[in-house]
Each structure stands twice: as structure tokens, then as C-alpha cells.
């Protein structure tokens, strides 16, 4: 089996992720922050260890500004619904995932926010100058992805953050694609909020994610409930991260996420990026030899977070993925990738795209086998 | 170590929970419902297997009416925020957890709902006739816990459900305490919604929970985002369970939860209940011998979901728990247990209570050792 669906969820995980989760759940997994007994304290410490590792990874001073969520979608919903009020104007892009677009569209339809959706260039890249042109006095937020989950194009998120800051606007970075192999540094990026999943580039398990919230940002919580703190209050406490962490946390998941981030620290962001670049280059070069293939991803690896998307002339993307899976055990994803406006942008709203997304654990020989398999499928399809 | 904090999270889990999670995360953990490749399909099937097991446990015909959440708190927030509108009247009880009280209090403060909080009897038990007396034309919802997380008293939830149904009112059952050892049958209970955690009585891991939503109930979603279905829509699809399951699910967690429910099926609800009753009876009888102890839990095991709460005259609950943990490695919980109105009801708002909560895996000898330890602590405290 060759797994090339790392943009959906990374697989496999580092061995330490499995081992740390197993140890947690078998030996000390009490309710973190809910009791003062030894096991509960050990669980709390383990959760906060992961919090600190993530703070270090994105260069945040106070790890308490990082709140754990079940996935990036929850983090994005907290950010968008917690911040925006009637009359606010938001700028976003056609390259966003539905986890950004749907919360914004719902607020536009039911809560009276105004929404501007910026188009990208040929590769879907967003120009910060175009964002700037759309800023009005009412603009409260710019929401943009770190890189596209459809074709991998990396956005100029540093410049977009600067544009936001220079205009007194908040910037929400959706770091779902790229965190863990691309440097995201809060001292350089000027993001007010960063939403991230734990189970993609950070190499943790599913059921984890988080939201960084800058100290000066006040959001309404999406949920309320038991926080283990200030139990006597009948309203939600303001304290971070408790305000956004109601109910029992996913302790074993967060422990696994900590091991994932530790693996990234030890391996080095640069080494991970270099490896992924090598895989992407080989894949792109291989596929570009076949004139029946139309590629949608950036050719330059420094502009690409790890995705090679394509279509085969005359074939639906799902047909190709089904053959890759059924005949060659190559796991990748077809369709719209929950990003309908990006596909509209590329003119692939009907066919979708075949998306191959690489991870640090893929090998060059897997890439070579994938290229051969695709070439053989195209040969068979054209023969019939 | 003796673990008596099962009301916070159950520990240990059945061996099959650990093994199934390990197998999932190591061998097939792709993104469920997001791709058509074999691993993704296998993950989807595993998630839906758990969904069906839970549907069977609570006797629900269509498992798609069960939506997975990260914990019971998320499920309760979806139920409360998704249903209630300005002007609605809600009846709840003083025995609720903050995961019910806080969402309702926030709606009362900011969204114009009316809230009636019913008091319980000496043990905190809610009388359905008192609920009935408070029903008005505006009453939309009755929200009540299956049993108290403070003292274990089991509520007459079947009768409360009937009262709701007879008056055309919806009933939200918070099944956080008791599901997995107390029969909850949707054909008998008349609940419109049931919120449950996966990591307590269902013996699954943290990071799991769910909400059963009856077919005729329409709730607004708390979050929106990628659902893997109808990706071309820029608003949230209405389809269940997708409407409430935006973003990547916690596949290994849900797989573990399925193994937990399977363990319950195989062992039998009655056998689990009988074992817990035996432990509670021994604990209650043992502690009631010491005249320095004030007990707050129901003496009759058929009225108790598995908790023995008490205070020691002249001592704060946290002092006792700290000694139990530090000197005897007995893990239990002091304080307010996120249920401030229940403690107000019992007059323990300042001292809290020592809560011992048993699980299926506790033994009688652990209970005997706990009783001895508590007696010795009281002897030492009184000596000083």
C-alpha cells in the first residue's frame, strides 16, 4: 500500500506517537484539570507539555493562549463565530476550505456580516495587494489559508498578516495545510489567530487540533460547560484556555500530538520540508512527462506545501483514484476536497482533481511506483 | 493505586479498547468519509460500526440519528443552542452539571430564554410532578440528568420523559452518568435528545461522545465546515449525522468506543450494574459505621448510579482527598464537581464533597482498603 492522502490525515505517525498514546491510556489517563489526585495531575501535565511544545513550534510566549479543540474545524468556528458581529466586513479567498467558507457564509446569510471573496492567480495564489484594495472601514478580519488543500500553493501569509496589521485588521490563519513542514512564527506572521489540526502535518492522532488566540483578542466561546476551574460560576469563565476547553479533553490524543511535535522538533522543520520537496519534485516531473495529464499544482517546490493535483484528459478524477486504489493499492483523493470555490477557480467543479499528497514517511520508490501506475492506467484508459 | 474517579473518566478500559485503537491508528487510520480509497472506507465502516452499536444499546432504529462529538459537553451545547429561541421556556434541575447549566444560563442572559431550575428532595431526586407544575405554554424543553454526578442519585428519567411527551415538550437527557450500567431505552424513555460521553460508563477513550437526535427534531448546528458530503454547497448540509460532524472525526477514539460498547454488550448491562451495586453497598455500609462521616449519596443501590460522596466533620473535602492520594494512592475527587447548584442544595458549597465513584473493574478488596484508609485518616485528623 502506498499512502498519498497526507493532506487529509497523515499516515503513518512516528512510532513515539503510538507508544506515548498507548502508555497514557493504559497507565495514567485520568481527567486532566478536574481533580487534584496524582493521575489527574499527570494527565494535566501531559496536556500542558503538548501545549508548550506547540507554543514553541509557532514561537508563542504564553502557551495558555493555545486552546485545544477536536479538529481545525472547531478552531475555525470558534475564531469566526466568536469574533464577528453584524456589520463586520471580512475578506477571504476562493482557495479556502469549507471549514472557513461555510462558517463565513452562514454569518453572511444569518448574522449580517459582509463577505468579500478574493480570487487567486493562475495557481490560486492570493495577492496581498488585491486584499488591500478591498479593505474598507468596516473590515474586521482577513481569513486565509496557509496553503491550498487542493493544489498545495503556499500563500504569502506573512505579507497578508502585515497588510492586516498595517490596517488595524485581525488576521486568521488557517494552518491546516503546511504547519509541521513550513515555518509559522508568530513573531513574524502578525496573525491574531491560528487554527490548526493535530492529525495532519503535526503528525498527531485524529481528534486533536487547536486555536492560537493572541492576548489582545476577545472571542465569545462556541460552547460552555465544565471547565474544572471556577466551578461555582454559572457563566463561562474568561480564563484561557479554559474558556474554550469545556468538557473532558482528549488526553491520549493530545499526548500523541505532543509526541508528533517532538518528532518534528527533533527531525527539524527544514529536514521535513526538504524531504517533502524532493518527493513533490519527483512526482511533478514524472507526471509532467505524460501529455495526457493536466497538472494544477505549483511546479516550484518552494511554492508547494506537498500536493500534486492533476486530471487525465477525458477521465473523471474518481475513476483514476478508484483504479489507483483497486489495482495498485495507491491511496489518494478525488473530487472537490471540500473546497468548491477553488475547483470553480480551476474549472474543475465537475471533474474534481486527483490529489496526491506526500508525507515525510513516503519514499522516492513509492513515488516512482505511483508514476508508473498512473502511466499504465492512462495507457489502459486510452486503449479502451 | 486504587482508582475511584470513574465518574470523571473510567479507568482502566477493557483490553479490547486499547487493542482496537492501536490496530486502527497503526494500520488503517485514514480520514473517514472523506475519500473512496480502501483505508478511508475501512475507517468509515469502523466509525459506523460504533454508531450502530450505540444505536443498539439505546434501542434507536436509525443509527444515523446518532452524531459523534468530542465529549458530552459538545453534545449538550448542540442540543441547547441548536434548539432554543428567544421566548422559549426551559425547565431544568439544581442537580445538573455546568455542561447543562452554563449553556442555559448564557441563553437566559443573552438570548432571552426563560429558565426554571427545579429543586430536588433530600437526596437531590427530582419529582416529575414538580416539573409538571412549572410547565407553561412557552415551555419548549425539559433538560435533566440521568443521575447526579455529585451523589449518584438516579432521576426518574422515564417518568420525566413521559411528562414531557404528554405535554408536547421536548426532553433532553444528559446521560453522562449511568449510560453503560443503567438501561436507557429510547422506546421507553421518550427523550428527544440524549447527550453522552464516550469515556465514562461506555468505557471508551477520552475525546469521544455523542448526541442522539430524534428524527422529528431540527437543530441548528453549532459548527459548520467540511462534511465530505455535498462539498459543492457553501452552507452546511442538512443530512444527519454530517450536519453535526464537521471536520475530521476522532477515528481511533470512536473505534475504541465501539470496543467499549461491545464489552458492555458481551458482559451485559445487568452484570455491570450488579457489580457496581455490590461495590457501592460495601462502600456505603463501611463508611456509615464511622460517625465522623456525613454521607450524601443514596443508601439504596437501586437509586445510585455508582457514587458514594461524603464529608468528614471538621475537614475540607480537598484535605481528605489529598491524604487519600498522597498516603494511600487512592484516587478520588473533592470540590464542587462542576455542579455548583447541587452543592448549594446539599449545603456543601464551601467544603465540597469527597466523591468516590466506582467502576466495573474495581474490586471489593479495593473498597475495603479504601474504607480502612478513610478511617485511619479520620483517626489521624482527630488526634491532631
TrEMBL record, chains A, B:
Q: Locate the coiled-coil region(s) and give their ranges.
A: none
Q: Which residues form the Aminotransferase class V domain?
A: 2-369
Q: Which reaction does it catalyse?
A: (sulfur carrier)-H + L-cysteine = (sulfur carrier)-SH + L-alanine
Provide any one GO MF term from the record: cysteine desulfurase activity
Q: Which cofactor does it need?
A: pyridoxal 5'-phosphate
Q: Which GO terms describe its biological process?
A: cysteine metabolic process
| InterPro entries, per database record | Aminotrans_V_dom, Cys_dSase-rel_unknwn_funct, Cys_dSase_SufS, Cysteine_dSase, PyrdxlP-dep_Trfase, PyrdxlP-dep_Trfase_major, PyrdxlP-dep_Trfase_small
- This entry's Enzyme Commission designation comes to 2.8.1.7
- Keyword line: Pyridoxal phosphate, Transferase
Q: In which domain of life is the source organism classified?
A: Bacteria
What's its top-level EC category?
transferase
| Family, as annotated | Belongs to the class-V pyridoxal-phosphate-dependent aminotransferase family. Csd subfamily.
NCBIfam families attached here? am_tr_V_EF2568
Q: Under what name is this protein listed? A: cysteine desulfurase
